[in-house]
Design a protein that fits this description.
Chain A: Belongs to the AzlC family. The structure holds 2 protein chains of 2 kinds. By secondary structure, chain A is mostly helical. Chain A has 13 helices and no strands. Chains A and B meet through α1, α3, α4, α5 and α6 of A and α1, α2, β2, α3 and α4 of B.
Chain lengths: 246, 102
């Protein structure tokens, strides 16, 4: 991936709009369809059709939705279940942090764009070389995903009984495959690979001992940890010439 | 009723953190360290989520058919397959391994 710190406003259009739209539709359609798995899982966890659809419409961040219905199905206290889902959703704040620089949206538009600030829209947007591409990628991924995710959630909830055991259909592998496909293009340098490796160790190692959702948050600390280690080794900040403000 | 409370709290909380990220003043992001950190955080989170959703069964770590499915997805990625093919590979291989009793 190109240097993350510099995105030209205009020009450098080595990627046509159609290619951006194609990328966005690819992600939007694939992940949007996996809402089916959520609808099935949620209905199987004992949530009503209305509750299942409300989650996809209002929460709209898949990992949190899966975490919430899983915790509720296990008989968890509603606030504990919500806390786990919330912790998983906290990562979207970091995506928003990144996206707000690249999208440069007017303040009045941000409350409307916010609901689409999730893994997939961020990954597509970040992969684009220009601001125009970032905006197109974010918007097309967002609308495609929102419409399809909610539609397939409804269908999944309706079809849950017909399908029977969703794991037998391999649908539980769709989630990690999606995350892996989003992650792969980001692993360009040693810094990113070291971060990913450390995050995997933390995420898996802490899973048995911390409440659901918390290990992922701790794993996020791999990012500052690797940056700190790299900074120590190179004896200071480097890599972004001309950007030090003071 | 309890479920609606959980849904409401989750919806409000998740929307709030999404919006928070977009509303943080641009001045706070001008520092190179913050920029690099914001770029690197999704890498850490996606890696941890991938690993957990591949190996986690509640609070336990297990190796089951999902591992074969995600490995198939990884191969598809190396072969530069389109996104849908990558996900389909994971689902089909996982279902196949389960069908074979894996």
């Amino acid at each position: 991936m190109r240097e993350q710190t510099a995105v030209p406003d205009t020009g450098a259009g080595d990627k046509p709009d159609a290619a951006v739209v194609r990328d966005a539709l690819g992600v939007g359609v694939a992940v949007g369809l996996s809402g089916f798995a959520f609808g099935v899982t949620s209905a199987g966890s004992g949530l009503t059709l209305l509750q299942t659809c409300a989650l996809s419409l209002l929460v709209f961040t898949g990992a949190s939705q899966f975490a919430l219905v899983g915790a509720l199905a296990a008989g968890g206290n509603p606030l504990t279940a919500a806390a786990g889902a919330f912790f998983l959703g906290v990562r979207n704040a970091f995506y928003g942090l990144r996206l707000s620089q690249l999208l440069a949206l007017p303040r009045a538009v941000r409350p409307f764009a916010a609901q689409w600030v999730i893994d997939e829209t961020t990954a597509v947007a970040l992969a684009q070389p220009t601001r125009r591409g970032v905006r197109i990628g974010f918007a097309v991924t967002g609308v495609t995903l929102y419409v399809l995710w909610n539609l397939t959630t409804l269908l999944g909830a309706l079809g849950a009984e017909a399908l029977g055991d969703t794991d037998a259909w391999g649908l539980d592998a769709a989630g990690p495959a999606v995350f892996l496909a989003l992650l792969a293009p980001m692993l360009k340098t040693t810094t990113e690979r070291a971060t990913a490796a450390l995050a995997v160790l933390l995420g898996l190692g802490l899973l048995p001992v911390l409440p659901a959702g918390v290990p992922v948050l701790v794993a996020a600390l791999a990012a500052p940890a690797v940056l700190w280690a790299r900074g120590r080794r190179s004896g200071g900040t480097s890599g972004t010439p001309g950007e030090e403000p003071r | 009723m309890n479920i609606w409370i959980a849904i409401g709290v989750t919806a409000v909380g998740c929307y709030a953190v999404k919006l928070l990220g977009l509303l943080v003043p641009a001045g706070a992001l001008e520092r190179p360290l913050v920029k690099r950190l914001a770029a690197l955080l999704p890498v850490a989170l996606l890696a941890a989520l991938t690993a957990q959703q591949t190996f986690a069964d509640g609070h336990a770590l297990v190796v089951d058919a999902r591992v074969a499915g995600v490995a198939a997805a990884a191969v598809a990625l190396v072969l530069r397959a389109p996104f849908l093919v990558v996900v389909a590979a994971a689902v089909v291989v996982t279902a196949g391994v389960r069908a074979l009793g894996g």
